[in-house]
Write a structure and sequence with these properties.
This protein has 134 residues and is an alpha+beta fold. It is built from 3 helices and 7 strands, in the order H-E-E-E-E-H-E-E-H-E. The radius of gyration is 14 Å and the shape is globular.
Length: 134
């Protein structure tokens, strides 16, 4: 998966470090949207979003079913301030990448994420950013 470097204003970068819950929208195989709350991390240096989950979770299965062209949108909101991050997504179970996702999650949310036996990471290469009031 290619990674785009995304330039974000300082206020947006700060907003994305706050321990908020976001919504992740993926597409089911029939094309209908699946929206679910998630915790995530954003690496501004690489433009990469990481969401830890179970391999059997609908969001992970949707990304896998979408193949190399799977696109998703993640939106974090706080009142009337919000940012949406869109991009191509892939699922990985690589131990090093999973460990990095867990490390970043633990720093952001000050607690380790759930650790299911089938832990995977949805990685999103952000190529489009929309925001309001940031």
């Amino acid at each position: 998966m290619s990674r785009a470097t995304v330039e974000l204003p300082a206020a947006t970068r700060v907003f994305l470090t706050r321990p908020h819950t976001a919504t992740l929208t993926t597409l089911r195989p029939d094309g209908t949207p699946h929206v679910t709350p998630v915790h995530f991390t954003f690496d501004a240096a690489t433009g990469l979003v990481r969401v830890t989950t179970r391999a059997g979770a609908r969001k992970a299965r949707n990304v896998v079913a979408g193949g190399p062209t799977a696109r998703v949108a993640l939106c974090q909101a706080d009142g009337f301030r919000w940012v949406s991050l869109e991009g191509g997504a892939a699922v990985t179970d690589d131990p090093a990448r999973s460990a990095e996702a867990v490390r970043r999650y633990t720093v952001r949310y000050r607690a380790a994420p759930p650790a299911p036996l089938d832990l995977v990471v949805v990685e999103i290469a952000v190529d489009r950013v929309l925001s309001l009031n940031l």
